[in-house]
Structure of Helix-turn-helix domain-containing protein:
Amino acid sequence: MIKTAFELRTIGNLLKDRRKDRGLSIEDVARITKIRAKYLQALENGDYSSFPSEVYLKGFLKNYAKFLDVNQKRALAMYRREREYQQKEPTIDNSNKATKALVNLDLTPGKVILGLIVSAIILTVIYIGTNINSILQEPELSISAPIELNNGEEGVFETSEDSIRIIGNIEVGSELTINGQQFETNNFEQFIKDFNLDDGLNTFTLVAESQFGKVSEISLKIIKEGNLTGTDEDITTTITPTQVTSAMNILVEIVDREAYVEVKIDGEITTANVLPVGEILELSALSKLEITTPRPDAVKIIINETDQTVEGSLTNTWELINGQVVKQ
């Protein structure tokens, strides 16, 4: 069978080649992008029936393409062409053969009953398989404001406002609780909730529970900067001689040459990519920062406006201990 150029170069092949060029496994990509390994494998294999809907498929495709530096518009265009090609692919018409075969069949009550039983068994197996897949999967949960987070992720946001608005989406049929309090969603399973903030650290734990008892969770930490009020004398008496901080404000800059950089904030990987010269990352950590790079000389790090030294070892770690930044 002669394959066309289109058949030889699908979006799945492109994604797989880019991933292998970077020396990453499916599990590595799943851990970094938070996209399940089975969906990544399905995209590479062109197995689009594995996705619950077209919206999920395109969303995962765009995120995977972005992670591998593949133009998202090009990825979607290749996907559309591939689906159009599959729909137009000719099929063998066996209608004449089937008609001839049916002519020679002797239908008896026993055969009819047997056929109905077999059909019922097949339909039952399909139904059970579909529902088991739903039962075993964690419900979808994400927020788009004040920052974007997906199921299983933890994020930090700083503000000087007295309140915060959390906007997100939850899978149809699931229940939403925030800090143990149950909330209603609209018909599109979207939620918009406002919360008052205390000075300092405010933690919001969002939990989605499916009708089968599966749970998804997002942890959002909001740091509210307190406002100093009162007379100059009051301020002088409340400020201690040792200045401490509740978070690490981090600036990562790539200098001289490009470098692969993996950044882990409070135990969660936020960046794992080859960054070009001049790229700047602005990050925030509550307790721990880990930088992994084979080119420490190409990475400049500033924490709380203080230059930090990147050693020659592969991983450098900084921790916030008693309000002070300490390099391990």
Notes: Residues 248-327 form one domain. Residues 1-7, 97-104, 228-243 have pLDDT under 50 and may be disordered. The CA atoms of residues 229 and 304 lie 24 Å apart.
